[in-house]
Write a structure and sequence with these properties.
127 residues; alpha/beta; Rossmann fold; 5-stranded parallel sheet; 5 helices; 42% helix
């Protein structure tokens, strides 16, 4: 039997974090939630999850800085990163992808689409 997918969600909006956690856990995905960029940077010292779900607009360190830092850490460099953010301008999307994000979903989002994108990204990684 496969181990459940382990996902790290960095999201400062508690309502969004609650809804995403509910959706993912209901679908067998383990969720660790951090509310800001400072805690996310500290988390880089621990073993990586299977996927990072990352907001752009975060306290202390924004999601774009975090993507750069993740890609610079050898243990985290290959972890898929899915941006989930209200920033919907093309230049924001392009910047995130250029910095190393694997996918980008804008808020408001469709729950089943988010789940499908997470499953696609985590299917690539052998466990």
């Amino acid at each position: 039997m496969n181990a459940p997918t382990r996902l790290l969600m960095v999201e400062d909006e508690e309502d969004i974090a609650f809804l995403v956690r509910f959706l993912l856990e209901r679908n067998g995905i383990e969720v660790e939630h951090l509310p800001d960029g400072r805690q996310a940077l500290a988390r880089l010292q621990a073993p990586p999850p299977d996927l990072v779900l990352l907001d752009v607009m975060l306290p202390y360190h924004d999601g774009l800085e975090l993507v750069e830092r993740l890609r610079a850490e050898p243990a985290w460099a290959q972890v898929p990163v899915l941006m989930l953010t209200a920033k919907a301008r093309e230049r924001d999307i392009v910047r995130a992808l250029e910095l190393g994000a694997d996918d980008y979903v804008t808020k408001p989002f469709q729950p089943e689409e988010l789940l499908a994108r997470i499953r696609r990204l985590t299917a690539r990684k052998p466990r």
